[in-house]
Design brief:
single chain, 2 domains, about 220 residues, about 20% helix, 5-stranded antiparallel β-sheet, elongated, 13 strands
């Protein structure tokens, strides 16, 4: 059993999965549902990259119903591996979400509650960030993830905008990452969640703020 963590764009057709050559199967988790795929000879090595073929059998499998009792712990373990791997993979995103460091004046031009995102280079003392403050209170920018999404779009396009600045890394606090595939923000830890809540002006962070939704969190 091996947890294979790769992003679909550069390595895997199915993204993150658990490879089980001992049973000629591979498992994925989609929408919280465990899926079992035929493996066999169709899992091939191509220039060092592994691919699951598109054709072949695929089925949903419920660890509590669809297998013998003695097999259930193993499938529960696979499901947990995949669930936790998704969080780990999102944290590996190069797109870092920031909030200004309290008391720093170099970021005073950024509206409170803005979505701030950058792609800092290891060891670099400065970082270019793009931000979106929804200054016109657009409903499609109601959530933090909505604002980060729009700022991220300008970042990857290197779009000329006044909503960009290069600042010292010490002027910002890294609080999480933005994953373009799932359109979600993943906080680093509980301290980061608290920092995000403070930046948004609320006592407790609403998880809905972390998922792009194009509408106000309920």
């Amino acid at each position: 059993m091996e947890l294979v963590m790769g992003m679909p764009a550069d390595e895997l057709w199915l993204g993150i999965y658990v490879d089980c050559p001992e049973e000629n199967r591979a498992y994925t988790l989609r929408g919280g549902v465990l899926r079992r795929h035929g493996r066999g000879a169709r899992l091939e090595i191509d220039n060092g990259r592994r691919h699951l073929a598109e054709e072949g059998d695929e089925e949903e499998v419920d660890p509590e119903v669809d297998v013998a009792e003695h097999e259930r712990p193993r499938l529960r373990r696979i499901a947990r591996m995949l669930s936790q791997a998704g969080v780990i993979a999102r944290l590996a995103s190069p797109y870092v979400v920031f909030v200004p460091r309290e008391g720093d004046t170099s970021t005073k031009g950024i509206r409170k509650g803005s979505g701030i995102v950058g792609a800092p280079q290891p060891g670099a003392e400065r970082v270019a960030v793009y931000y979106e403050g929804a200054i016109y209170e657009q409903p499609e920018l109601a959530r933090l993830a909505d604002r980060v999404f729009h700022a991220h779009g300008r970042l990857v396009a290197n779009y000329p905008t006044v909503a960009r600045m290069a600042v010292a890394r010490t002027s910002l606090v890294e609080v999480g990452t933005f994953d373009p595939a799932s359109l979600t923000i993943t906080p680093i830890d509980t301290a980061a969640e608290s920092a995000l809540a403070t930046w948004l002006g609320c006592g407790r962070l609403d998880p809905a703020e972390l998922v792009r939704g194009g509408g106000a969190p309920r």
